[in-house]
Automatic annotation (TrEMBL):
This is Esterase lipase. Residues 48-566 form the Carboxylesterase type B domain. InterPro entries: AB_hydrolase_fold (IPR029058), AChE-related_enzymes (IPR050654), CarbesteraseB (IPR002018). Coiled coil: none annotated. It comes from the Eukaryota. Belongs to the type-B carboxylesterase/lipase family. The chain crosses the membrane at residues 12-34. GO terms for molecular function: carboxylic ester hydrolase activity.
Length: 577
């Protein structure tokens, strides 16, 4: 069935995102060499890791940079859909291995194979550390998990050198790649051990284990690791908080969740249709066991598998347009993720660490098609959360249209069609904003003193013109600096009228990363960031960032009620429960 015009906005958006990823992947090495030179007279920094020695660069701002460090063996051939294995010892006898260029990122959904800058061999990490750091420095470690909806890597190779410098050379920054799409989240294979599930999440845990073993060689403290995720990266952080039933494996000691992403995350048994489709389209269907089918898939050409990965289909019983925004996601596998996220948080089955969370005011705008009718609204939710009944989607629509929805100002950009703002608000709250509220409320049962939340409401003229409001991850420019985001450097406002936001936001972030308390890094002009739980045990306090200033706010009753409504669906039919 052809996609109607009113849904083409979503596909144009996704195509644009993937096109940008492809373009910038080819420019990574060039931009790195042009913008980050080092003095020829200085010997390169050397990191002697347990399996090999690597040489990096000392940048002009006195930051050591190591790019493309393997944290696992390549996940190819027999290692496809298996947990990452530690790197093999180097057989090189010619001295340290150069670590001066970014390696390819993991293959994402929506790109052809081959694509420059993307590869199945992709499990690499990047490190930025003070040039004077030694193994005795034991600096706080800031591990960043990028997003991309579990279908692509959208925040790849963000540069951490400016953050290290502006922290007073007081942190070590790590970012890395992990498997996504079909390569990281194929599920439904019977669970007989031949097909490991959620290997994208297992890659992340493999990286955290690598940090425990190796980070001291860069000046980091393995006993002071803050895990920070953005979007699907923040959703990943949530998964690690509840992984293995909340067992604390000592991999991290604080967590930052920036725009937490909660899509449908079904039980593995509900995904047999997805696995069958992959088998049929690769010609691997017909074996007498999952072992034989997986052997076939592991020997299938990368190009064939990538074509299958790109061919998303509706969930069973759903209409063609619009397809799910995010097709490949983590599943409840009964081991790493033992039950639905909300249920585990409700039961207190999570690692107990200080936590900071934040969302933008208009999280849903960049994901929302230009719809014009109520029917398109309900179809969108039905196709993205397939267990919702017709009565559920009708109830959602009622919640987000007058007279029930009276929030001022009502988000209805003048250059967008009817129902765009309604859907953007509803999707943003269902999938990002309310998961933050609901998870924080569950966490506050056992943690009343080290939970902080914020709302980012910093406007930009370009975003306003495009009808985006304050969109998803708009705070990233303030956290990392506008010149550090590669393809995400979309505006000049952080260099002009929003420039002062950078140090305001970073102050709180540095405080949390260094001391597990954002207030210990705040600028003297900024207010004290009060915790989510107030002195009278009430929840819902968050810091509000705006261009004009920063202040505390309390969730309005209407928003509390809407988040309670989503919690009711999430614990039942949205597969977030």
């Amino acid at each position: 069935m052809p996609i109607p015009c009113h849904f083409q906005h979503l596909w144009l958006y996704q195509s644009a995102v993937y096109s940008v990823i492809m373009i910038f992947a080819t420019l990574l090495i060039i931009s790195s060499l042009l913008s980050q030179t080092t003095s020829a007279s200085s010997p390169p920094p050397i990191a002697n890791l347990t399996y090999a020695a690597f040489s990096g660069l000392t940048l002009p701002n006195s930051v050591n940079q190591f790019l493309g460090l393997p944290y696992a063996q390549p996940p190819i051939g027999p290692f496809r859909w298996r947990s990452p294995s530690p790197p093999l010892p180097s057989s090189s006898g010619s001295g340290p291995i150069p670590a001066t260029e970014f390696k390819p990122i993991c293959l994402g959904t929506g790109v052809a194979y081959p694509t420059p800058g993307q590869s199945e061999d992709c499990l690499y990490a990047n490190i930025w550390a003070p040039a004077n750091a030694t193994s005795e420095s034991r600096l706080p470690v800031w591990v960043f998990i990028q997003g991309g909806g579990y279908n692509a890597l959208s925040n790849y190779n963000w540069n951490g050198s400016e953050v290290v410098e502006r922290s007073g050379y007081g942190v070590v920054v790590v970012n890395f790649n992990y498997r996504v799409g079909l390569w990281g989240f194929l599920a439904g294979g019977g669970g007989d051990g031949e097909m490991e599930l959620n290997v994208g999440l297992r890659d992340q845990r493999g990286l955290l284990g690598w940090v425990q073993r190796e980070i001291v060689q860069f000046g980091g403290d393995p006993e002071h690791v803050v895990m920070h995720g953005a979007s699907a990266g923040a959703g990943s952080v949530a998964m690690h908080l509840i992984a293995n039933g909340g067992r604390d494996d000592g991999l991290f000691h604080g967590a930052i969740l920036e725009s937490i992403f909660f899509p449908a995350q079904p039980f593995v048994g509900e995904l047999g249709w997805q696995f069958e489709r992959v088998l049929n389209q690769t010609g691997c269907k017909g074996g007498n066991s999952t072992e034989g089918e997986m052997d076939c898939l592991r020997n299938t050409d990368v190009k064939v598998l990538q074509e299958v990965a790109n061919h998303a289909q509706p969930f069973p019983g759903k209409a063609d347009p619009p397809l799910p925004v995010f097709y490949w996601t983590p599943c409840v596998d009964g081991e790493l993720i033992q039950d639905f996220p909300y249920k585990l948080f409700k039961q207190g089955k999570n690692v107990k660490v200080p936590i900071m969370m934040g969302t933008a005011s208009n999280e849903g705008t960049v994901f929302t098609p230009n719809i014009t009718t109520p029917q398109q609204f309900t179809t969108f939710f039905s196709n993205n959360y397939p267990l919702l009944a017709a009565t559920d989607t009708t109830s959602v629509l009622s919640r987000y249209t007058p007279p029930n929805f009276n929030t001022t100002p009502y988000f209805n950009p003048p250059n967008r069609p009817p129902f765009y703002g309604v859907l953007a608000t509803a999707y943003g709250e269902s999938t990002f904003i309310c998961p933050q509220t609901n998870v924080l409320n569950y966490l506050s049962v056992d943690n009343t003193s080290s939970l902080w939340a914020y709302r980012y409401n910093v406007h930009d003229d370009e975003n306003t013109r495009d009808g985006l409001g304050v969109p998803h991850l708009w705070d990233a420019g303030a956290i990392w600096g506008p010149g550090s985001l590669n393809s995400w450097d979309r505006t000049g406002s952080y260099r002009t009228y929003n420039k002062e936001l950078i140090e305001r936001v970073r102050g709180y972030y540095f405080g949390f990363v260094k001391y597990f308390d954002p207030n210990r890094g705040r600028l003297g002009t900024e207010p004290e960031w009060e915790g989510w739980v107030g002195g009278n045990e009430t929840t819902g306090r968050r810091l509000l960032f705006e261009t004009e200033g920063t202040r505390m706010e309390v969730l309005e009753q209407e928003e509390r009620e809407r988040c309670g409504f989503w919690l009711g669906l999430g614990e039942g039919r949205m597969e977030q429960r």
